[in-house]
Design goal:
The protein contains 3 helices and 5 strands, in the order βββαββαα. With 104 residues, it is of the alpha+beta class. It folds into 2 domains: 38 residues, no CATH class; 47 residues, no CATH class. Strands 1-2-3 form a 3-stranded antiparallel sheet, with no helix packed on it. The protein has a two-stranded antiparallel ribbon with strand order 4-5. β2 and β3 form a beta hairpin. It starts with 9 loop residues before the first strand and ends in a 5-residue tail after the last helix.
Length: 104
């Protein structure tokens, strides 16, 4: 049986009438075993306080960055960033790594 979702996918839940489930955006954590119908463990994607590369996938082709201290500028392909770090990589940690290379 094929799976509808993959781990790391961001999905919008639209509950059936009469179900008390918040209409929200969720991240798929894992597929649950032992069911004829695919079931998944999910968590609210809004609980994060940081961006991941998957948040900008399909919205930006190139991410432009600029250092406020030394005026360095750069352009990074979002596709290549995802290939290198993964969709779920924390963009703020990546930015801190870039800041660590600042000559000033």
């Amino acid at each position: 049986m094929s799976h509808k979702f993959k781990v790391g996918d961001i999905v919008t839940v639209r509950p059936a009438i009469g179900r008390f489930v918040p209409n929200d955006v969720f991240e798929v954590l894992k597929r649950l075993p032992g069911s004829n119908e695919p079931e998944y463990q999910i968590k609210s994607a809004m609980a994060r306080s940081y961006l991941i590369f998957g948040d900008i996938e399909g919205k930006l082709d190139v991410l432009r960055v600029e250092c406020g201290r030394c005026q360095r500028k750069g352009r990074h392909s979002v596709r290549r960033l995802i290939e290198k770090y993964g969709r779920n990589a924390n963009m703020m940690k990546w930015k801190e790594q870039l800041n660590g290379h600042c000559p000033k």
